[in-house]
Amino acid sequence: MEAKRVYTKFWADYFPVVMRRRKRWEHADPRRDPSKLQRFVYKGIPAPYRREIWMRNCAPRGPPPLTIVPPVTVEAIRVDLPRTFPDNQFLHIERFRNALGRMLYTLAQYIPSVGYCQGINFVAGLILLVMKDETKAVDLLIHMVRQRHDYYNETMSGLKRDTRVMQLILAKECPQVARAFKALDVGLDLLHWKVVSLLVC
After folding, report:
1. Using one digit for the tens of pLDDT, what is the confidence trace for 156-177?
2. How far apart are CA 60 and CA 71, in angstroms?
3. Pick from 49, 8, 57, 5: which is nearest to 31 by CA?
4. Do the beta carbons of residue 171 and residue 181 sit within 8 Å?
5. Which of 46, 136, 170, 179 is close enough to 22 for a disulfide, judged by CB 3.0 to 4.6 Å?
6. Percent of the chain at pLDDT exceeding 70
7. CB 159 within 8 A of CB 189
8. Contact 197, 159 (CB under 8 A)
9. First to last CA, the chain
10. 141 in Cβ contact with 130 (< 8 Å)
11. Can you give the three-state secondary structure of the chain, one letter per residue?
């Protein structure tokens, strides 16, 4: 109950910011100016614009490779499907849950060196929730993983490297925040993963 109260208060405070950003997008329409668009994206993309902006630089996935997805990967996907945003009504609908499963299977098929990475189901689920289109969602997921391949491989070397850089920057630029994270035992690897998974929403 406490968490719900805190979230409700946070959203009540943050909602005016969201609406203000949305009005700025509607007024300025930064989609026509690449330099302006970059500035606007850094501050957050309002929900009505996300599908278009996310797909702007998304390369098509190409023809399907002749890759057999190992049974252990298929089973891992099957087990994690009901765990993906379990409170989300959209993903409770069987056809959308099945679409998420197909997305994860297709990712494992296209990028066998990654296969199925623990937690990628939440990234895929978020993309599907925004796109509401399985084909576009799969294209975007595969494109994203290809761009950050070392975030999702077995060692997660890219994620670890960037997390370390983030720690150094945070300690230098925002030492109070760094100390607060340390006191709360909040690992920046988790925080960084969340930032990446939100795709600059």
Report:
1. 888 888 888 888 888 888 888 8
2. 27
3. 49
4. no
5. 46
6. 92
7. yes
8. no
9. 27
10. no
11. CHHHHHHHHHHHHHHHHHHHHHHHHHHHCHHHCHHHHHHHHHCCCCHHHHHHHHHCCCCCCCCCCCCCCCHHHHHHHHHHHHHCCCCCHHHHCHHHHHHHHHHHHHHHHHCCCCCCCCCHHHHHHHHHHHHCCHHHHHHHHHHHHHHCHHHHCCCCHHHHHHHHHHHHHHHHHCHHHHHHHHHCCCCHHHHHHHHHHHCCC
- Two tokens, residue 177: 């925040």
Residue reference for tokens 């297709």: 106
Residues 40-84 pLDDT 10s: 988 889 989 999 999 988 888 888 887 889 999 999 999 999 999
Which pairs with CB-CB distance under 8 Å and at least 24 residues apart come from 169-172?
none
